[in-house]
Amino acid sequence: xxxxxxxxxxxxxxFIFLVDQSRSMSRKISGxxxxxxQEAADAINKQLNxxxxxxxxxxxxxxxxxxxxxxxxxxSGDATGLISDQPIPINELESxxxxxxxxxxxxxxxxIEIEFPVWFDPVAxxxxxxxxGLTLAKQWIEDWVQRNPESFPPVLINISDxxxxxxxxxxxAESIMNIETTDGKTLIWNCHISEKGENSVSFPQxxxxxxxxxHSKEMFEMSSVIPDSMLAIAKEEYANVDTGARAYVYNAxxxxxxxxxxxxxxxxxxxxx
Amino acid sequence: MAVKxxxxxxxxxxxxxxxxxxxxxxxKERYAICDGAxxxxxxxLWASCxxxxxxxxSFNLDNEEDYFLMLTDARRKWFxxxxxxxxxxNVKNKSIRGSYCTFLGFSIVRDDGTYCDAxxxxxxxxxxxxxxxxxxxxxKSPDDFGVHPDLVWSGxxxxxxxxxxxxxxxxxxRLSTEINDDSKIVxxxxxxxxxxxxxxxxxxxxxxxxxDSREFFDSMRSNGTIKNDDLSAIIISFS
Lengths: 273, 239
Fold this sequence. Notes:
The complex is a heterodimer. By secondary structure, chain A is an alpha/beta fold. Helix content of chain A is about 30%, strand content about 25%. In chain A, strands 1, 4, 5, 6, 9, 12, 13 and 14 form an 8-stranded mixed beta sheet that branches. Chain A has a two-stranded antiparallel sheet with strand order 2-3. Chain A has a two-stranded antiparallel ribbon with strand order 7-8. In chain A, strand 2 and strand 3 form a beta hairpin. The longest helix of chain A has 20 residues, at about 35-55. Chain A starts with 12 loop residues before the first strand and ends with a helix. By secondary structure, chain B is α+β, with helices and mostly antiparallel strands. Chain B has helices at about 45-55, 65-80, 90-95, 190-210, 215-220; strands spanning about 1-10, 20-25, 30-35, 100, 105-110, 115-120, 125-130, 135, 150-155, 175-180, 185-190, 230-235. In chain B, strands 1-12-11-7-8 form a 5-stranded antiparallel beta sheet, with helices on one face. In chain B, strands 2-3-5-6-10 form a 5-stranded antiparallel beta sheet, covered by helices on one side. Chain B is globular.
C-alpha cells in the first residue's frame, strides 16, 4: 500500500469531515474563546476554504478533490450531510456557500480584510450518534471508491468530544479502514477535543500512551496508522511522531485541532500534480 | 542558426494550462525560459511577463540594479494584465500573495569569439553540448532537483501592492563561457532538464527527433521516464 497515487482531475482525492454535534460541544474548548462546536465548525470551514485555495487557478477551481461534511447529534440518534447529501467536487462547493463573512488576515504585518465563505454553522444539540455518522460516511466512501478505484485513498477526519452513544464505533470504523483503492486503504483521523486541555496525547503509537478510559481506547483503535510516506509532514508539527503512530490526538486543545486538520489535509495536497 | 521550441502542458491538463513560458529575440540573441510555480496563482502569466521582459531589453543581470529594473518591468506587465476588481473571492484571496516562477535567461555575446552569459534563479537549466561532453547550469546533477527550487516573486497583488513596496531578493546564479560554432544549446524547465542531465546527448537526440510529438512526451511521462510536469525547451543550433 503505497499512498503515492498522483491526484489529478481524472483521479481526484476525497476528504470527509465528521463533526460531533452533541450537547457537550457547547462547552468552551481549551485554548479557545468559543465553544467546541463553534471552533470545530470554524476549523472545518477554514479547511474547506484552504482546499479550494489549493485548487484555485486563474481560470477557476480545478476538481482535484471531492469533499463532504457529516454532522451527528443535531437531533437524537441521527446523522446527516451538512453541505450536501453526498460528497461533491470541490469546484461545486461555491454553489453551497451559506454566506460570506469578512475577516481580517495579517499578511506581512499588514491587516487585510478578506472575504471568507461559511458552508455550515455550529450545532450542539443532542447525543453522540457516532456510529450513525460513520455508517453514512461508509456509504459515501464505498460509492466514491467504486467510481474512483485507482485514486489516492479517501481521508476521513472525525472531530468529537466524547464517546459514541449509539454503540461501538470501532466495528464500523474498521470496515471503513478496509475500503481500499489500488493505492491504499481509507485513512481515518480522529481528534478528541477537550475543554480541559490537560494531558493531551498526540499521535500515540501504543494504547498504553493514552489514559485508561473506554472512549479514548475506542478512538485509538479506530484511528489509522499514519503511512510512512506521510510521517515527515506530521513530524513538522509534532517532533515525537514516529513509525506506527496513529492519526489521533486525545484531549486536543484548539491549537491541536487546527494542527491535526492541517496535517491530515496537507499530506494529501502534496499528491496533487 | 536554427531555433526550435516546444511547450507541452502536463498530462491531463489543457495546453493553455501550461505554466511554463519562454521568449526569444534572435536579432538580440536573447532567450529566456520560466516555469510558473503551481502553488501560486497567475504564475503562468508571471512566467510569460518575466521571460518577455528579459528578451525585450538588454538587462545585464550581473548588476543588481538591472535585475530589479527587469523585475519591475515584468511586474508592471503582470499587474496590468489582471482585472483585479473582477476576480471571484477565491481567486482574489489567493492572488494577494502574488505569483512565483523560476527564471533562466541566456544571451549570446559576439566579440573576438562567441561567448554566452546565463543567469538563473531556480531549477530551469541551460545545457551547452560540445563534441564530447556537455555543461549544465545552474544544476549539475539529477540529484540537485528538489521540491522547493528558488523562485522569482512578482510582488503582492491587489490590495497589498498599495501598502508594500516591491523589494525582490537578488539570488541570481551566473555563468559566462565560450561557445563553439558546433555547440548545441538547450534551455529547459526542470522535468526535461533532469531527463537531459540523466541521458546527455542521447536524451537530447530523442527530444530533437520528437520535438513536435506530444504523444512521445506523454508516453515518457506515463512510463515514468519523465515526471508528469509541463515540459518546455528552446533548442539552438549554430550549424
